UniProtKB/TrEMBL annotation:
Name under which the protein is recorded: Acetyltransferase (GNAT) family protein
Entry's transmembrane regions: none
Entry keyword annotation includes Transferase: yes
Gene3D superfamilies from the UniProt entry: 3.40.630.30
Lineage of origin: Bacteria, Pseudomonadati, Bacteroidota, Flavobacteriia, Flavobacteriales
Length: 102
């Protein structure tokens, strides 16, 4: 999927896979060179222990190294825990994401 500007990452603790996430790289008319974080998952037993904060520090540094000006992500409306987490990291809510299955 590299030819589609997508990169998938594993999060390891020693030799154990404890999470995954993906990054899409694109240019947006409203945001310039952008990185979209996609499909973040960290095993529940490792949540709330600083792994997510460390993950986003990595994502922000990695996106900056690829000349991104912004990072964006989507979250389900009722996922209040993630909203609080993202806002504590300095992310702001900018709109709604609409979907229509075909």
């Amino acid at each position: 999927m590299f030819d589609q500007n997508y990169e998938c990452f594993g999060i390891y603790l020693e030799n154990r896979l404890i999470g995954v996430f993906g990054l899409w790289f694109m240019t947006r008319h409203y945001a310039g060179r952008s990185c979209e974080v996609d499909h973040i998952f960290i095993e529940e037993e490792f949540q709330g222990k600083g792994k997510g904060k460390s993950l986003f520090e990595f994502i922000e540094q990695y996106a900056a190294s690829k000349d991104c000006e912004t990072i964006e992500l989507n979250s389900y409306v009722e996922n209040f825990g993630s909203h609080k987490f993202y806002m504590n990291l300095g992310y702001i809510i900018r709109g709604y994401h609409f979907l229509k299955k075909l």
